[in-house]
Amino acid sequence: MVSGGGTNLQALLDGVADGRIADARIGLVLSSRAGAYALERARLAGVKTIVVSKEDYPDEEEKADAILAALADAKTGLVVTAGYMSLLSRRVCSAYKGRMINIHPSLLPKYGGEGFYGSRVHRAVLAAGEKETGATVHYVDDVGIDSGEIIMQKRVPVMENDTPETLQKRVLEEAEHLIIVEATNAIVKKLAENL
Ligand code: GRF
Predict the structure, then answer these.
(1) For 7-193, CATH number?
(2) Where are the domains of the chain?
């Protein structure tokens, strides 16, 4: 599930193509925004796409129904929210409990939860004078935002003259894009063993 540039999606597409994510395929890319470049990345990789946006579904319940229908049609075994910026309804999270994971650009539980997304995370890390930061892959639960059990984390250093942009780039490239592939592979394997 995506909303933006889709660099995490690209990492997943590459991971499936080169076998770092084994015995799995990306059956659907669902975007909350029609203009997301992530959709182009999916198309270039021959992956089915669908847009379920606030504009098309102003009613939260109807939006949740549309998301659940799309995921069911794609026979979804695991949902990965990768740069997905729309709040998921409790109903959707409950339906995929234990089978939905999220990538967050900080070392949760720090700099997570309400209002901590995108470059706001890195701005807060810099403002706090942190010497290191990183990324987290966690299960999405139906309790709160970024509150699910942590699966994997990767640390990166904060440099003296970092800006939110330089820090975001390092976290994306040296943490997010690596652990989203490693964690997805591990969870796919775990789910397959429990089938
Ligand atoms: C990433 O930092 C991701 O962790 C956050 O959104 C940013 C952009 O992700 N949720 P992507 O390039 O769209 O995958």
Answers:
(1) 3.40.50.170
(2) 7-193
pLDDT, tens digit (0-9, with 9 covering 90-100), for 97-113: 999 999 999 999 999 99
The Cα–Cα gap between 9 and 26 comes to 10
| Residue 78 identity | L
The closest residue, in CA terms, to atom 9 on ligand 1 is 83
pTM (whole model) above 0.85: yes
Q: Which two tokens stand for residue 79?
A: 């949902």
104 flagged as catalytic: yes
Ligand 1 atom index nearest CA of 84:
10
